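Box 3.1 A note on notation
Throughout this textbook, protein chains are presented in two layers. The first layer is the amino acid sequence; the second is a C-alpha cell string describing backbone geometry. Keep the layers aligned when reading.
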Amino acid sequence: MVIRTVRVLSFMLILLGVAHALNPASPANPPQKERQARTKKTPSSQSGQTAKLEQRVATLETQLNQLMGIVIPDVENALNAIVSSKAQSDSATIMVINRINTLQNKIKILEDKAAYSDSSNLQILHQLMMIENKIVTLTKSFNELYSMRTSKVGGRAGSISSDDFKRSYVKALSHYQDGDFHKAIEGFSALVGIDPNHKLSDNSQYWLGEAFYSLKNYRRAVLEFQKVFQFAEKDKWDDAQIKLGICHQKMGNMDKARDEFQKLLDRYPDSEYTQRAQQYLRQL
C-alpha cells in the first residue's frame, strides 16, 4: 500500500514538472512590446524552446527516477522490517504461551504427586496406628495372662470357685492370643454370664468386645464395648472408650468416631490413650 502511494505521488510530481515546463509563469497582462516580440519570433527560436523543454523534462525524469530509486527501496525495507518484527513478536508470544502452558502442566503434575504423597502418608500412618493398636492389645492380653497365673483371686464366683473362674479366664484369653477368636468368645461369654459382679467380669466383657473386633464384626464389638461401662470395676473403661472410636472409624461413622475419641479426652484426661486419641482426631 505504501509503495503504491509513493508511486502515485511520483507520477503526480512528473505531471506537475511537465506542466510547469510547458507553461512557465508569466505576467497576467504582458506589455505590448513583449506580445509583439513573441509574435515576431521565428520558427528557429520556437524549436529552440521546444528542445529546452524536452531537455527539462528529461532532467526531471532523471531526477524522479533517482528519487524513486532511493525512496522506494527504503520504504520496502521499512515494510519488510515491520513485517519481520511482527513475525518475531508473534513467535516470541507463542513461545511465552507455550512456556506458560508447560509450567502449568508441571505444577499440576507436582500438585498431583503431592496429593498422592499426602494420601499415601496418611494411609501408612493409619496402618501404623492399627499395628500399634494390635501390639498394645496383645501386650495387654499377655500382661493380664501373666498376672492371672501369678496372682490369686479369692472367694467364689457363682457356681464355680474363683480359681476355676480364673482358669477359665486364662483359657479364653489364651484362645484370643492364639487367634482362635470364636473359642475366646465362647469362653468370655460364659464367664460374663456366670457372675457379672466378679472382679474379672469387666475384663471378660472387654475381651469379648476385642474378639468381635478381631473378627471385624465392628457393629457387635461396639455393643460389647458399651457393656463394659455397666460394671463397677473401671480399669477397662478407657480401653473400651478408645475402641469405640476405632470401631466407628472402621465402619465409616467419622462423626461418631470423633465424638468417642473426644469423650476419652474429656472423661479420661490421664489415660494412657489420650495421645493416640489425639492422633486419631487429627486423621478425621
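The mean pLDDT is 77. The longest strand covers residues 156-157.
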